[in-house]
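FIELD: query
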Amino acid sequence: MTLSPLRLRLLVASLLVVSFLGALDHTVVSTSLATIAGELGALEQLSWIMVGYTLSATVMLPVLGKLGDVLGPRRVFVASLMLFVAASLACGFAPSMGWLIAARVVQGVSSAGIQLMSQTIIARVTSPRERPRYMAVIGAAFPIAIVVGPVLGGLITDFWGWQWVFWINVPVGIVALTLALIAVPHLPGGAHPRFDISGSVVFTLSLVALVLAVTWVGEDSLLLTALALFAVAAAGFVVFFIIEVRAEAPIIPLHLLRNRTILACLALSAIIGAGLFATTSYLPTYFQMAYRTSATVSGLVPIATVLGMLVANLLTGYLVSRTGRYRPYPIIGTTLSAGGLLVMALLPPGAPLWVPMIVMAVVGMGTGGFMNLVFALVQSSAPASDLGAVTATTNLVRQVASTLGTAVVGGVLGFGVAALLPSTLDAATLTPKAVHAASPEVQDAVALIYHDVFSPIFLALAVVYALGIVAAVALPGGRLSDETPAPVPDPQAQTV
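FIELD: result
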């Protein structure tokens, strides 16, 4: 479908607002968690405010992607946005932690639908060559939300109360919904009206088991439960594969994996999740301990990383759309990121703080060079009837890799620090505040321990990005097409 330039700009603005709303909802809540748990009196369930949101958003991606292909992305997008506004309202009125977690689960599902359908709608109304530029604009919502979210959440909690962290979504969401109803065109569903219910159920249960197993495997009291869930997940994925091979309309079209471009882009998407997201999660802890900085100062390095990502993302989208050539950017990006993480691994103790800030900004720039480009490439390589499914699969791979990578890095960090700490210090109660108040000798010892533990972590992540270089080189060359994709066949029209 070809849109006028004015309507296309209005559409991109609408999708950017909605995507930012969904991305912000994940980051803005982080600074209000302690206040929420204290007022609702359920500190032991604190983590489920975030886990419930992330888990539901992850496991529903393939289902929502397939629904977009069957029903049309506009219907799923509008329904997700309406559900998101309603869930935000319910979160603010939550009288108990159970109510809040349930509402956050609904928020996660609707947020996934918003993000996924935004990417699918752009794919349906633009040519492959135009797509990287618009994908980069919409994708800018995520890094901006990382920077703005925690600060905004803290201000809202301090001055208005934690309920407004959720209620602020209501007026913004209504405005975004109005824009969406005007700007988003009516897009027909795909050519596969049947829905793979058995595959959806098995996949969802298997992925829930896997994410919970990864989350709980580091806790001694839940180790046996985690191992049992790993077994359930493994068996479930085998059953899911058998179902998908035989399904008439699978939620994850396995035949697309035979396409070299799609396979390489899935590998690159996984590397972003396991490499960058796992790194940025623990950078503040590293700098508070190894560099003895305050919590505020330690946040500057992740911000530098995200800003590097944002600049490279927008620049790459513009350049690819202008020239049509895409292959050099993933190669350059993975090389830059691998080199930056290698430098981080080799930095000596006591290096000035500005050095790792610059290095991690380079890592962010490298990742931003192909962060949203991979979505444009997989969409250009898939048939129009599978756009939602292939976009969902790319997002899913990134999310799962991020979850697994974060869990592995956290486990290595916890085990390594506990093993190296002297007997006079307890790893379970070691906080930056306690270290900063200790003697200079203790501070030096802890700083060296964290440096020694993080160095191999950075090195391992550099190897992960080095594998990404292989995936980037495997991408076929050529130029993106200037032709807008043909409309998806209407299955009802075919049966008349």
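FIELD: remark
The chain has a mean pLDDT of 83.
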